[in-house]
Amino acid sequence: MRAWSAPDVPALPVTAPAVRLFDTARQDLVEVGLDAVGSNASLYVCGITPYDATHMGHANTYVTFDLLHRAWLNAGLTVNYAQNVTDVDDPLLERATKVKIDWRELAEREIELFRKDMEALRVIPPANYTGAVESIPLVIELIKQLEAAGAVYKVEEDLYFSISADDAFGGESQYSREQMLEIFPERGGDPDRPGKKDPLDPLVWRGERPGEPSWDSPWGKGRPGWHIECAAIAREHLGAGFTVQGGGSDLIFPHHEMCAAHAQTIDSSAPFAQAYAHCGMVGYLGEKMSKSKGNLVFVSALRNAELDPMAIRLVLLRHHYRSDWEWTDELLFDAVDTVGQWRKALALGAGAPAEPVVAEVLAAIADDLDAPRAVAAVQAWVDATLGGSGHLAQHSDEDAAAQVSKVLDAALGLSL
Length: 416
Hints:
The chain is an alpha/beta fold.
């Protein structure tokens, strides 16, 4: 599947520090860099289910891992980035039926809108962008391997994975069984289905249902389960022990736990990923922003209202990626004003010394993607450059604006 166009990212004259991230599995900050074979810094971020437009919760996730991508590049690493698109799933099919449109047409329409949103926000695209439909051969091969390992069983027309097959199950989320049983049905699981060996066992192949799309397999016509899709794509494009698995905190369990279990059952020599990084949830009107609640702020709607995408990105950067926070119009309007002020400072050419702000921005992003700290450093430079009167004060750095502009783009993705 085609991703989106890549932004031009300037090369910096300095090398950024090594990156440390908070690893959900270890509950600690860890250095993240090259993958298990030492070839690339590798990243897998779970993609969209394209049944509606990109909202700010999505944008928060993809901007977060864009910061990681940029931090690795600035540290001199080569990055292998993979992402999926769940272009066949229950929510998509239900939405297509509701609006009386072919599910494939709906998926392509929303994927194209997502591409435009990512381009506007200057998110570097993945090298491997793979849809669930095109991943079906990979999924079938992975299920065959799980079956050979005795980790798959049938319930009526469906296939399930036995979580008992992975000795490390639970190590990614660190959740208790009681927590898992509470969360599982809220996030697509079916713990009460008769015939399952364990209530937490996930579906890996959904047998054909009337009126639903299906594909041939050794177990009859059907389509992939959700978790097996990402496990198969990540294994194919990144291999075992890739550097970081990323996504929202609502993917910690069951999704990322199950992905790891599938992969580690086949190859226990390395963890599915070396580290797991998760973004906080973005709320609106007092609740987590979600399609089911309808409390969404769409990137495309803001773009169509001619709001500066760089202001949208700045709102996201002002919140640490692991925090939960609430979107408001006031945050956006304040970011619009800030972007205007920063452009005014950059337009002067000369300014306060650039070297300290460049170093601080790179250090902040390397320290668990601390974008708010980086933004504060830029703001301090802008304030020093403009001075109390709003005019250029006396400074010795004649090339400051160019240097600051370059680090804003390379590290924070802000093209001003």
